[in-house]
Amino acid sequence: MSAESAVLPTRTALQDRLKTWARAHRVRWEMTRHFEIVHDRKTQVGFDLTLSAPRPAGCDGDPGCLECARTHEEMGRIAVSLLPPGTQYDVEPFDGSFHLGDCDEPELLLTVEILADAREPELADCSGRRTLALVEAGLRCLEIRQKSTPPVRSGR
Ligand SMILES: [Zn+2]
């Protein structure tokens, strides 16, 4: 095997592949505010981007099956590909379970915590900032639809 012969996909080719995959797997997204307890106070520290996909066609009914794990992994690839360089984030591990989506359809969820840092501290208390705008633009580019749940609301 020769590493030299390996051709890295261009960004566009990767986007095309992710877009095709997302469409085939009916991936949708939602963004919610992410809270943690800081000094005994519930404090927003960023946002959670959650991608969801109905139970994959190849699934044998077990949410812990290989096909479900692959679906979760690919959604993680999509989510991370949307984050601007330098973004501080955490991909939540696969929980190996179905969640009830619209019409009680079982679906898999992938959540990425997008965390505020020195680069963009305003992620911690507001919505509609640069990172979120870029992520949402990326989702539109991949033609991934937003879930019907209410979007992120501005702070009180
Ligand atoms: Zn499965």
Describe it.
- With 156 residues, the chain is α+β, with helices and mostly antiparallel strands.
- It has one domain.
- The chain has helices at residues 11-24, 66-82, 130-141; strands at residues 28-38, 41-54, 88-91, 99-100, 106-115, 145-146.
- Strands 1, 2, 3, 4, 5 and 6 form a six-stranded mixed β-sheet that branches.
- A hairpin with a 2-residue loop joins strand 1 (28-38) and strand 2 (41-54).
- The termini are far apart.
Structure described in brief:
With 156 residues, this protein is of the alpha+beta class. 28% of the residues lie in helices and 28% in strands. The protein has one domain (31-145).
Q: What Rg do the Cα atoms give?
A: 17 Å
Query: What is the mean pLDDT?
Result: 86
Q: Which segments are poorly predicted (pLDDT under 50) over 5 or more consecutive residues?
A: none
Helix/strand/pairing class, anyone?
Answer: alpha+beta
The total of beta strands comes to 6
Question: Which small molecules are bound?
Answer: zinc ion
Instruction: Specify the overall morphology.
Output: globular
Order of helices and strands: HEEHEEEHE
How many helices?
A: 3
**How far is the N terminus from the C terminus?**
58 Å
Work out the strand percent. Answer: 25-35%
Helix percentage range: 25-40%
- Report the sheet with the most strands, covering strand number, pairing sense and barrel closure: 6 strands, mixed
Question: What is the number of independent domains?
Answer: 1
